[in-house]
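Annex B.
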Amino acid sequence: SATFTPAPAPAPARDQFQEELVIRPLHSGDIYASFQFRTLWDTDFLQERQKKVSHYRLFPKSLGQVLSKFSVRELHISFTQGFWRTMQWGQPFIPSPPGAELWVWFHHTVSDVDGNWKELTNVLSGIFCASLNFIDMTNTVQPSASFKPLGLGNATDHRFLRYATLPREIVCTENLTPWKKLLPCGSKAGLAVLMKSEKLFHSSFHSQAVHIRPICQDEQCTSKAWELRQTLNVVFDHYTSGQGKKEWSLFKMFSRTLTEACPLASSSKVYVDITDNPELFELSPATHLLSRAVVLGDRRTYSVYDLTRAETFGQLRSFNLLLRWKGDNMLRPLLHAERYVAGFGLQTGEIHTVIYNNHPYRAFPVLLMDSVPWYLQLYVHTLTVTSKSRDNKPSYIHYQPAKDRHRPHLLEMLIQLPPHSMTEVTVQFERALLKWTEYTPDPNHGFYVGSSVVSALVPSMVAMSTNFTQDQPLFSSFVPVKEESSYFVRVYTEPLLVNLPTPDFSMPYNVICLTCTVVAVGYGSFYNLLTRTFQVDEPSPPLAKRLANFIRRIRGVPLLA
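Phosphatidylinositol glycan anchor biosynthesis class T: predicted structure tokens.
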């Protein structure tokens, strides 16, 4: 008789997906919405290159093939429209500069890093429908200290690091569409249904990013996984989007409401920052689920809405949040930076970078990184750093001079900021005269210089938690916390718009028109005189005589002589 053999139990899934939305009412009256989607995959693209991982469930295959082919250890890419106003909005969860930013750590086995970098930028340009193919060695640098790996492996050999920005990159729908297609549910279900292009781009600030890195799955790091984190940050202006009223809802912000969580998500939550409640605003519907987390050195309280629970949507199967403002308050961030160009004329100028330490009694060091294009020739001997009208000598300086048409300037400095102070860094430069083929189609608009990057461990007002848990919110777990007394912050300044000496490109057109006219008239007349043959034509008889001869010919009478 046949025996029945039960089917083996299915193997546990090696990947998982989480999604969350954080809504933070800003003290300026605006609304900050931060989407975070995380995909974890228990695999190793670098060790399994020989087997060529072919089965993809939640992790996007296009990115998995990129990691495997180019031996990428970490990849961070962002597309940002607008500038994050730190003084009005505070610190973002994950900062990004205006335009496009890309920095990549390659595996130590890569022999031709520059070749892999060039090919990688071209591939990513096609994946995200962006102009990343304009990244070349003239705008690529190798920071020595500013960009450390955020995942496993404390790599210190910056030969395998590449960093580049395109401050003029314009972000639009064609960049958002491929970004949404990387999600397991796309924009069909879950939090991604709120991402309506018409609303997202009608905002004061919009930034979308992709971060890929290897991480530990537990505190002892017994198992490792690849983490794909997709983030989208947007700030809605209550004057333009809220019709001048301080009243917000999901429908007013996104023109849509939530009806279900992504079926493939193990966790789907909406967090609303209610730390200032009820002094500033009221929230409806209310929830009894609360979460407390230390974010950016401050203890915050959040109302939590779990989309995997049916009671969250109610009888209408629709979830819509409503926020009504009551008052106003203003808090200053502890670290802030800005930058501008001074001087007059089109020969020389001066770059000013101002860094503010708003902590009342704590001093702390910051790492400043500047990448300046080669056509702004820096005079490094004019570099000055002043704090409270006194010289402030940096404890570490790394400078790599530019090569014309080959690489930009790279300047990194470690500066100690006194408490409650303003530190100013200035350096003079001279503008180069480009070849006429090197100018952009609109040269009088100016040339963009990427943002300065300020990295620091800012003293925390409360004790930071260094314990690792899988249950902590995504927005508080991106940067690992190694000290209880401080937290990591990265601040980007404004990009610069610099005018260069520009020739009058209409002058060649005028010269061509004048020259062609002279040649056509002068040479044409002279050529006609040389080549034309002249003949003497007999004068024709007058009209009356021709008419008389015509009549005489009809009558048969001899013609007149």
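The mean pLDDT is 85. The CA atoms of residues 376 and 501 lie 11 Å apart. Further annotation is deferred to the next reporting cycle.
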